[in-house]
Specification:
The complex is a heterotrimer. By secondary structure, chain B is an alpha+beta fold. Chain B is 64% helix and 18% strand. Chain B has one domain: Winged helix-like DNA-binding domain superfamily/Winged helix DNA-binding domain (Arc Repressor Mutant, subunit A), CATH 1.10.10.10. Chain B is built from 4 helices and 3 strands, in the order αβααββα. In chain B, β2 and β3 form a beta hairpin. In chain B, α1 packs across α3 and α1 packs antiparallel against α4. The relative contact order of chain B is 0.14. By secondary structure, chain C is mainly alpha-helical. Chain C is built from 7 helices and 2 strands; from the N terminus they run ααααβαααβ. In chain C, strands 1-2 form a two-stranded antiparallel sheet. Classes of the chains: A mainly alpha, B alpha+beta, C mainly alpha. At the A-C interface, α2 of A face α7 of C. Chain C: Keywords: Membrane, Transmembrane, Transmembrane helix. Chain C: This is Integral membrane protein. Chain C: It holds the Pfam family HAAS.
Chain lengths: 52, 102, 197
């Protein structure tokens, strides 16, 4: 898989970017243009990443 | 002959010797010696210089189991002879001046 | 002296006098002696009539002297002068500035692939980690947020991969370019042989 990745890195990377953007736009749109939902309120403690 | 004067003339003498036919070292010395004194050792530097100036070119021919170097007059060399001959009137002028005619 | 002795002596004298093109000279004299022998002269007469090998070599070295002068490369000379005057703080700081400028030059050149590499690593690592944590975020805070993060992490992966490719290719190209640049700079400091005549 790494070999095909090495040959097509440009295409794969661009597809991933587009795909990611599409999903982001889709979820934003699905939330009803609600930016409030995606904002983070509170202290940005890094260990909160693993707060399960 | 005066050494400096001879030095100037020798090159052209050698060129002229090659005008009729190609020749090799010893033969050139023999032929040119009829007109102007030239020794074995004086010829060699002249040949080197003429070849460097592309007025002659050399090639090797087999003779009695050894290689003999022949020299051939190039068009550049012929031009040099022609130029020498064309300049001769200027030389005569100097001669007349030294003589006291002018 | 016979012919072989004469030629040998001539070879020695020519080498000592640093005459160029000794092979041609030896050929000429050997040919001359052979021709005269054919003509009937005796070896001794011929050798006697010729100049001595030393005289021949002297004449030829007069004709075309090879003066090889080792010329100091201009950059090395300039550098030496700079170092000598280094005692004075004024000139010392000038030299330091020059070195720093060259270092900055190299740094700037390598900035592009370095930055691309940093973006690549952060994009891939960050994207990868948040890809998996998106699931957790989705569970904890709702699938919309989760999918937003999911999309973001995919985009980050894409950017990281893109930067990785950029870093790789610009790095390869720059390696070749800076190697040749360094060689060019160093060549300015190499002393060069200059043939004066």
């Amino acid at each position: 898989m790494l070999v095909s990745l090495k040959e097509n890195w440009l295409k794969v990377s661009l597809i991933l970017i587009v795909l990611g953007l599409v999903i982001m736009v889709a979820s934003y749109w699905a939330s009803g243009d609600n930016t409030q939902l995606f904002e983070y309120h509170g202290v940005h403690d890094w260990f909160r990443t693993f707060y399960l | 002959m005066n050494a400096q004067l001879k030095k100037g003339l020798l090159e052209f003498c050698v060129l002229a010797t090659l005008r009729t036919e190609d020749s090799y070292g010893y033969q050139i010395i023999k032929d040119t010696s009829n007109v102007i004194g030239i020794s074995d050792s004086t010829l060699y530097p002249i040949l080197k210089r003429l070849e460097k100036q592309q007025q002659i070119e050399s090639y090797s021919v087999e003779h009695n189991g050894r290689l003999r170097k022949y020299f051939h007059l190039t068009p550049v060399g012929q031009e040099a002879i022609a130029q020498f001959l064309a300049e001769w009137p200027e030389v005569m002028q100097v001669y007349d001046y030294i003589k006291g005619v002018i | 002296m016979n012919k072989i002795q004469f030629i040998k002596a001539l070879a020695t004298e020519l080498a000592q006098a640093q005459v160029r093109d000794t092979a041609n000279t030896l050929d000429y004299y050997e040919e001359l002696i052979d021709d005269r022998l054919e003509d009937g002269e005796s070896e001794l007469t011929i050798i006697a009539s010729l100049e001595s090998p030393r005289q021949i070599a002297a004449r030829l070295s007069d004709e075309r002297p090879i003066i090889r002068q080792r010329k100091t490369a201009p950059m090395t000379l300039a550098l030496i002068i700079m170092v000598v005057v280094l005692g004075s703080p004024l000139w010392g700081s000038l030299l330091l500035t020059a070195i720093l400028l060259i270092a900055v030059g190299y740094f700037l050149i390598w900035l592009v692939p370095a930055l691309a590499a940093i973006f690549a690593i952060s994009g891939i690592v960050g994207g990868g980690v948040s890809f998996f944590l998106a699931i957790i975020a989705g569970v904890r805070q709702g699938w919309l947020i989760g999918s937003m993060q999911f999309g973001l992490s995919i985009a980050m992966l894409g950017v990281g991969l893109l930067c990785a490719g950029l870093a790789w290719y610009s790095g390869c190209y720059l390696v070749k370019w800076s190697v040749s640049l360094t060689r060019w700079l160093l060549s300015k400091f190499k002393a060069r042989d200059k043939e004066v005549a």
